[in-house]
Design goal:
The protein has 252 residues and is α+β, with helices and mostly antiparallel strands. The protein has helices spanning 7-23, 27-81, 98-107, 238-242, and strands at residues 147-150, 162-166, 196-201, 206-210, 246-247. The longest helix is centred in the first third of the chain and has 55 residues, at 27-81.
């Protein structure tokens, strides 16, 4: 009680103090709410990170494989510019496999590191021992090449033509792949999870494509269409389609 205060003044002072406390921002409780929001966000980020980590290994492997495929196409383009727009197998020769065709890129010293022909997670593993010039006879030995090459094409072929593909179960047309590997190690002709496969095209583009349930690709899907909405395969005659095939890989 303040000296000289009447009962009425005391009542008014108490009421003002009470109102002041009621209007005061509850700093302590707001701080708890802020901490709760922050903790919730952190927990959400952790959950999302765990989910991303479960996907990241395969996504990372695919990105590396796509870069390798792109490097092979660039090397072939470089070779073709000096050889009448043809690729190394465009003329009569004694090639019997993708390994032998790609080895020509070593003997002509366009490629010096064979690791561009590998694919992470593939059963085909390289040792990067290419031998010595001029033959480079150890480059891409059996079991060291993951990629297959469409036979006897040139830079003048349809731009969306699937020039480089991951090794398939067959070499004849159309290429076909099996189900994804259950143990993570992809053997001959096995797709990535989700029925995915990497395709490198004659225009230099490289994409992850989704296989149909029968293990083949839909050659009239959007990635195969040009600016006119026409598939690359529609530019070929039935006779040309019948001749389509891939150089096989050499297995150990």
């Amino acid at each position: 009680m303040w000296q000289g205060e009447s009962q009425n003044e005391i009542a008014i002072r108490h009421e003002n103090q009470w109102n002041g406390r009621m209007n005061e921002v509850p700093k302590q409780r707001w701080g708890c709410l802020q901490r709760g929001i922050v903790i919730g966000c952190v927990l959400l980020l952790i959950a999302l990170s765990i989910a991303a980590l479960n996907l990241f290994p395969e996504m990372s492997r695919q990105m590396r494989a796509m870069r390798n495929c792109k490097s092979i196409i660039l090397a072939l383009e470089h070779w073709s510019h000096d050889n009448g727009m043809g690729y190394p197998d465009a003329w009569p020769n004694e090639f019997k496999s993708s390994n032998q065709v790609f080895r020509r890129l070593f003997t002509d010293e366009i490629i010096t590191d064979e690791r561009v022909f590998e694919c992470p997670g593939s059963v085909f593993i390289l040792d990067n021992d290419v031998g010595h010039p001029p033959n480079y006879d150890k480059a891409l030995a059996p079991g060291e090449c993951h990629w297959m090459l469409l036979k006897q094409q040139t830079g003048a072929a349809p731009q969306k033509m699937p020039l480089i593909i991951e090794n398939s179960l067959n070499t004849s047309w159309p290429p076909k792949w099996g189900l994804s590997a259950p143990n993570g190690v992809r053997k001959r002709g096995q797709a990535w999870s989700g029925r995915q496969i990497i395709i490198g095209r004659n225009d230099g583009s490289v994409q992850v494509e989704k296989l149909r349930e029968d293990g083949t690709l839909d050659w009239h899907s959007p990635p195969n269409l040009d600016e006119h909405g026409k598939s690359w395969i529609d530019y070929l005659t039935p006779e040309e389609i019948a001749k389509l095939s891939y150089w096989d890989i050499e297995e150990k």
